[in-house]
Design brief:
Blueprint lengths: L15 H5 L4 H4 L19 H12 L14 H13 L8 E4 L2 H12 L5 E6 L3 H9 L3 E10 L2 E4 L1 H11 L3 E5 L11 H13 L3 E5 L20 H6 E5 L2 H4 L7 E5 L2 H9 L4 H4 L23
Parallel strand pairs: 2-3, 2-5, 5-6, 6-7
Antiparallel strand pairs: 1-8, 3-4, 7-8
């Protein structure tokens, strides 16, 4: 196969001057003589289907509050994607949208834990995840990944002991792992699930890099392992890594635990999601002040 057939238009012919003119942190922050390779922000072009949809919305000037009383179309699209790619029956009515994975994690920890609670997390890890635990006053329980001759691996005995010793309530599982790139096998995930069941852990599974997995490796959603795993797992993901959409600011959370989903939905939501259409005909409170349950946004 010739090298010419391996060239990727829009990537192998990148114009560095155009890249440096971008406002993205990857290219805007470093000095002009530095070639940035320090953040998970690819230089592949955005897929045409995405640019076409964005352009069409802008040209229609369709940027107002959406009328999605039953939730955004993203919920159904996510469930369909999980079924098509991984054979996982995710439920659209258990999907909620957030702006990014950090917000997803913060909200789940807010709902499921309190200050001083212990949270197990693989290390090394995505620095903002570790900073989130510190900022929220949760006790991070590191579970170091081991660098072996066969590659990076989890030490399940260490995980089990750390959870037992600290009384963890939550395991933050990053799979595929960031930053090592390790894709956990089914056997490894099942061992993790057994530990979670034994200690009654909530598993927060960050699967944002799932679509970047290459053969012979295969991504397996943690919640797809068993009914027990499904009930105790909150899955976090986004299209931002696979499709280079970081600035779109959109992520999803799939809630397995009924209690957490109910707690999440008990919080105030956007007006268009909360208010029935008839609410728009209600009189505005005197003085124009919005109250909980009013139609004011």
């Amino acid at each position: 196969m010739s090298t010419e057939t391996l060239r990727l238009p829009g990537f192998d012919d990148l114009d560095r001057d155009r890249l440096r003119a971008r406002s993205s942190v990857k290219w805007h922050r470093p000095a002009p003589d530095v070639l940035p390779a320090w953040v998970a922000d690819m230089d592949f072009p955005v897929p045409p289907a995405v640019t076409d949809a964005l352009r069409a919305a802008v040209e229609r000037r369709d940027l107002g509050y959406p009328d999605w009383p039953d939730g955004s179309p993203l919920r159904t699209a996510f469930a369909r994607r999980m079924a098509d790619r991984y054979g996982w029956t995710a439920h659209a009515d258990r999907v909620r949208e957030q702006t990014d994975l950090i917000q997803c994690l913060q909200l789940v920890l807010h709902l499921a834990t309190g200050p001083g609670d212990a949270v197990a997390i693989q290390t090394p890890n995505y620095p903002p995840f570790l900073a989130t635990l510190t900022t929220m006053g949760r006790v991070a329980v590191p579970v170091p990944m081991e660098d072996t001759d066969e590659g990076w691996r989890m030490d399940f005995a260490a995980l089990d002991a750390a959870v037992e010793r600290s009384g963890c309530k939550v395991l933050v599982l990053v799979n595929p792992h960031n930053p090592t790139g390790r894709v956990l096998t089914r056997a490894e995930l099942e061992e993790t699930a057994a530990i979670a069941r034994r200690h009654d852990l909530l598993v927060v599974s960050d699967e944002i890099h799932a679509e970047l997995v290459h053969a012979p490796h295969r991504h397996i959603p943690f919640a797809s392992l068993s009914p027990d795993a499904a009930r105790r797992t909150v899955t976090l993901t986004s299209a931002t890594k696979s499709f280079n959409l970081a600035a779109i600011r959109c992520a999803v959370t799939h809630y397995g635990p009924d209690r957490l989903l109910a707690l999440r939905d008990a919080h105030p939501r956007t007006c268009t999601a909360r208010c029935p259409r008839s609410a728009w005909s209600r009189p505005r409170p005197r003085g124009g002040t919005a109250t909980r349950g009013s139609a004011s946004c």
